[in-house]
Amino acid sequence: MYAQTTLPISALEQLVDEICLSRKITRQHQWLLMRLLGNQSALSSRQSVLVSKVHEWLRQGRIRVVD
After folding, report:
1. How many Å apart are CA 40 and CA 24, to the nearest integer?
2. pLDDT, tens digit, 9 for 90 and up, residues 19-37
3. Is 57 within 8 Å of 20 (Cβ atoms)?
4. Which residues pair with 65 in a beta bridge?
5. pTM of this structure
6. Residue 59: pLDDT above 90?
7. Which of 20, 23, 41, 51 lies 20 to 30 Å from 14, alpha-carbon distance?
8. What is the signed CA dihedral for 50, 56, 62, 63, rounded to 10 degrees?
9. Where are the domains of the chain?
């Protein structure tokens, strides 16, 4: 069970880093986010922080949405 929790968080961190560094979120990024988070009934605190970071950056205009 521990390995299942660690791997998605690591993949999520990598994806959020990529989104923040490129300052854009693509359809592929959106799909990956939903894939990583969609099968879980609840988010861990770390996952919640990462998702909130992307949402806040979108709200502030620091990340562009592109196709």
Report:
1. 25
2. 999 999 999 999 999 998 8
3. yes
4. 25
5. 0.80
6. yes
7. 41
8. 60
9. 2-65
